[in-house]
Amino acid sequence: MAEKAWGGRFSQATDQRVERFTESISFDARLAPFDIQGSKAHATMLSEVGLITADERETICTTLDEIGQEIAAGQFEYRIELEDIHMHIERELTNRTGDTGRKLHTGRSRNDQVSTDVKLFLRHSIDQLIDLLEDLQEAFVDRCERDAEVVLPAFTHLQRAQPVMANHYWLAWCEKFERDRQRLVDCRRRTNSCPLGAAALAGTSLPINRQRTAELLGFEAVSANSLDISSDRDFLMEFVSDLAIIAVHLSSWAEEWILWFTTEFNFISIPDAFTTGSSIMPQKRNPDVLELIRGKSARVIAANQHLLTLTKSLPLAYNRDLQEDKIPVFDANDTVTACLELAAAIVESAELNVDRINSRLEEGFLDATTLMEYLIKKGVPMRTGHETVGSLVSLCEKENVRLAELSLEKFQAACSSIEEDVYEILGVRNAIKAFVSEGSGGPGRVAEQVAIWKKRIDERS
């Protein structure tokens, strides 16, 4: 039982089945660099308040660095009886330094130690994810120059609705991912408070300096309540909830491009590097990467549900259930990271099939709403204009013509307010020029937004 941090109370060895059941080293080993970072800061603080000597601090920190290098090089042996990465590192430190290593855990518990390690991991992961979101936004903004003259049909209910500039489409995704980025920034702010010093749940009688530990680890504040610290996993739930929203946005984008990649749409070409083939149908090129981005969103959404369910009934303060929080967090983080990396690469390399898009651009009466608004400007009540244009569309369908191909006589038979200038707003290219409201998809407003996004990207560089 001497191998156990809690072994002094027990006289019977742990059942091997319990060893296997309770270990977490199989998944929390990735916290090693953060555990070492936290332990070095803790040792420095202990030295400064006189609980260990400066020489002991130096020995502890130097040995922790050596252990960290061995772990990074894959030269460190893990044993399930040591349960987790925290005990592995502490046991190895003690083996190498004796009683000096035994002093490291002074004034802390695994409860606040684990919380600190996970917050350090989360802070690091958030910074990486923010960079990846910005890379994806930059990929969309870079497309704006390439596709500046392209007009696309925009859809509601997956039915052709109104025309927009292609750039308007790209910036729509930038806006969604910007909200994702801002949520992560907010999450980082709430994550960035230091748990160390809460110990098991009630703090400690030792003269530790929590503010100093927080300063050494780059935390902006000290978490206020030791009971709350021991039980708090809000920061993990918030983080994975943010990732779930990112995954949903990625899934929606992937679904759209999967449709655009079909023969029926044929709006976009995706390089071979990001598609796969069929084992039986030699002609196939499948958008498997996009399909997996869409599919992997389920894992992230499930991780969110996992954490909410895990924590919903836990009393204060720490409960061993919380060991299970890391698996969904790690998986959600790794999944979204991989999806964002590939999404940016696909956005950068795909090409719009402009000739195909243009060949069908006038289908679907994309200028109908602009015609209705033309009538409103002529003094026709909106609902009357809506009904009038609906009847004109029905007439066009019967005669197999477009609105721009109707004679003025037929327009005026439907509404006497229509004049010769109606042809200036009909047809997709004319209709799109009519959009002038702030945030709309017309050329002028889109150009304004492109300029704003380019400036934003430049300022981040």
UniProtKB/TrEMBL annotation:
Top-rank lineage group of the source organism: Bacteria
GO biological process, one term: L-arginine biosynthetic process via ornithine
UniProt keyword Transcription regulation, yes or no: no
Predominant localisation class: cytoplasm
Entry GO terms, CC: cytosol
Record has Cytoplasm as a keyword: yes
Compartment(s) where it occurs, according to its Swiss-Prot or TrEMBL record: Cytoplasm
EC number: 4.3.2.1
Entry keyword set: Amino-acid biosynthesis, Arginine biosynthesis, Cytoplasm, Lyase
Domain Argininosuccinate lyase C-terminal, residue spans: 365-432
CDD domains according to UniProt: Argininosuccinate_lyase
Protein's pathway: Amino-acid biosynthesis; L-arginine biosynthesis; L-arginine from L-ornithine and carbamoyl phosphate: step 3/3
Chemical reaction(s) catalysed: 2-(N(omega)-L-arginino)succinate = fumarate + L-arginine
Coiled-coil annotated residue ranges, if any: none
Pfam families in alphabetical order: ASL_C2 (PF14698), Lyase_1 (PF00206)
Domain Fumarate lyase N-terminal: 8-301
EC category: lyase
Gene Ontology MF terms: argininosuccinate lyase activity
Family stated for the protein in its record: Belongs to the lyase 1 family. Argininosuccinate lyase subfamily.
Protein name as annotated: Argininosuccinate lyase
Gene from which the chain derives: argH
